[in-house]
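Re: duplicated header lines in exported structure tokens

Our pipeline writes sequence and tokens for each protein into one text file. With two proteins the header for the second block appears twice in some exports. Here is an export where it did not happen, for reference. First protein block:
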Amino acid sequence: MHTRALSLAAILATPTHAQVPEGWYAISGFETSGGASPGGVWVASPRTNAPATRVTGVPGILINGLGANWIEITDDGSGLLCADAPTTVGDPINLWHLTLSGLNVVSAQPVQVATSLPSSPLAGLGAVSATENLAGNVFAFALSATADPVPALAGERIGLFDLTSGSLTPIAFVGPPLFGTWNAITVSNDFSAIYAAQVNGSSTTQIWRIPIDGSPASSVASPGSIVSSLAFESDGTLTYASFDELGRIDLSTGTVTPILSGFSNGHVIESATSSIASVSGSASGYEVRLLTPQGTVSNIATAPAGGWGILSGIDFREPIETYGSTSFGSNVYSWNITPNPGGLPTVGNPNFGITVESTPGTPTASAIWLSLASTNLPALGVTILVDPGANFLTSIPVPPSTSSTLPLALTPNIAGTTFYAQSIHLDGGGLATSNGLRFTVVDP
């Protein structure tokens, strides 16, 4: 691996903060019994263990009664998707798209996905049991056994909601008769299948792989306790949160391995660090915990003034991600960010850097471009993904290698600034480029 350092301290840019800033968490919760602590939606700054901030303007149905069930951040951070929880038989069951200005809801659009049926000891009143953002603001969701799906779902309790078009698409479960209720859902890293946890009674969970193309479903594992959420790590390992623990599942063998004891009602993977954040409960109340790959556990957010109820879901807005496509020659060039060797682009992180890798060989010459804007410009046989005009910052040569890292000094004056990077290579007598890399500097 070759490295070359670059200081960003002299780059003065005006930060532009999204409504849910990169590197922050969104958290949802139910009202506690008797209304002692309200439900609702909150955001939390990364790793400060400071009180979370309540999102204002949230519809009353997502605060009182039961509150907000699950939460997802839209792709650009401008909104949230969550679900309500009915209190009466016959109530509509809705997904809610909350559009934000700052941390205030300026538009709240419900989309009915079911009607609540009579409750049962297994499933209570009908509800949206889980949601997951596939990509491009298309969300997978699952309904409990006591939810009557709307006609657009054709009787299925797993579906897709396209936020852009507003359409609902059923996902067929082709398998044996269901014996319980869906209680968690996620999507494989290649977007080919949905993984859903089916809960029966108080102690049994069956996890199913459900191909999106309608092929037969298959059972993959049976954790011992009630699974409340599922999420994939970057290497394809399936993780779960349950009423007893956080754990991992080896999909090739079905082996279940607990990794952290204690009740968890939802969790999310930080791709850049491989850490797991979870909303967890104990006798002293609910908290947000972070488990690092090294096994360190810490609290990263506390209850706001006035408290919060039973936390039901958590999502994370990644501050570093790729975009666009690679223009390859004899080698393929890609950014290594899952996990990113330098961690998160946090002010004061002395190890932060960006790493491009070449497969299978080594280019003749390489450089990494940095800009304050992106583009999509075909030129010289490749596609330029960083703005080469007024927003262009610098081109940094890096030695020919199959792995090149550009360390970046992150200072407080650039917190909130988004940078765009792309590598360019002399490869086999022509040019080749990586895909684009977008990262936003976040406060610690």
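Second protein block, exported in the same file:
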Amino acid sequence: MKKMGFSFNKARAIKELAAAVFEKKIDLTIIKKMPDEEVKKITSSWNPYADVVYFHLLLNKLEKMGAI
């Protein structure tokens, strides 16, 4: 992730999200249906990079909807 320009902490947040999905602690199919405030609560543990994770989830959601 360093080659992609992510700092250590940003990479940590993304890796933790990926691990949580892999370990079935977070279900992305459910997150897609959640209100934004609920998603923010889930990603808040990755502060100060929670916004980066939240933004990524939002972009993914918009892409799947065909909005972008």
